[in-house]
Amino acid sequence: MRIPVSFLHQWRPQQPHRRGYLPGDGVMPYLKETNHSTRIRPGTIIVFRERKAYEVVEVNERPVDLWPEHFQQEWARFTQWWAEQVVSGREMGDQPERATWEHRPLVLVIRPAEQPTAKPKHYAVRASRPFFVLDEHYSVCRLCNEIPPCTHVTTEAMVGLEMANTERLMAIPAGHCLGCGDAITARMKAVRFPGPNLWRPDLGSDSAVFHARSTCDEYVSAYRRQWEEKGHDELQPQLPEDSP
């Protein structure tokens, strides 16, 4: 059973931060420094792997002949797509160049922010990739040294959401909408998914039903994703018919 995606929030620091963008030709050329966005430069503190704070030492261009293989492949696909658009008559502007391609690999040189004497490490990162930028006086979890909310806190929150959603589903009577929980009458339009009920197996097959209205759309979408992942996409949901 899966919680609707809209109920989960993408991780971000629970403290003052800005969206940071790497320097370089073709990368956010019209970016203005604001309270919400900034350029990343040496000395900038960013959130990188494992929700840890790192100090940026350098950001350098990577020679074309040293691009990782997957960047080479992406560039080939991009240029092929660009050429196809031009052939089809679309106005695509100047022909793209590797040296200014916004998704080219850059070399990000960083070290743990709390270890100023540590040996810097080099990473190949996409030029268009944004990072969370922290103030100089940032906070960390005292137990795991991660930027809050730490992995432990978000895991507990996820478990809590799962348990609450399970309790909500178990309280829904048979024949009621698995989204809002209200009854579905014969006069109402509904979407019914054939096959096993993935959220309430105890209700039996062909029992997963939802209201066909906007307030229940996110539940229908979440169920459909899980339903297709389970290999039931060869079946067809029973969609509401238009009224005469």
What does this structure look like?
With 244 residues, this protein is an alpha+beta fold. Helices cover 21% and strands 19% of the residues. It has three helices and nine strands. The strands form two sheets. It has a seven-stranded mixed beta sheet, with no helix packed on it. Strands 8-9 form a two-stranded antiparallel ribbon. A hairpin with a 5-residue loop joins strand 3 (45-47) and strand 4 (53-61). The model is unreliable at 1-8 (pLDDT under 50).
Question: How would you summarize what this structure contains?
Answer:
With 244 residues, the protein is α+β, with helices and mostly antiparallel strands. It is built from three helices and nine strands; from the N terminus they run E-E-E-E-H-E-E-E-H-E-E-H.
Portion of residues in beta strands equals 15-25%
Low-confidence spans: 1-8
Helix content: 10-25%
User: What is the radius of gyration computed over CA atoms, rounded to a whole number of angstroms?
Assistant: 25 Å
Tertiary shape? extended
Distance, first to last CA: 36 Å
* Widest beta sheet: strand line-up: 2-1-7-3-4-5-6
Average pLDDT, to the nearest integer?
88
Number of strands: 9
Number of helical segments? 3
Output the structural class.
Answer: alpha+beta
Biggest beta sheet attributes:
7 strands, mixed
- H/E topology pattern: EEEEHEEEHEEH
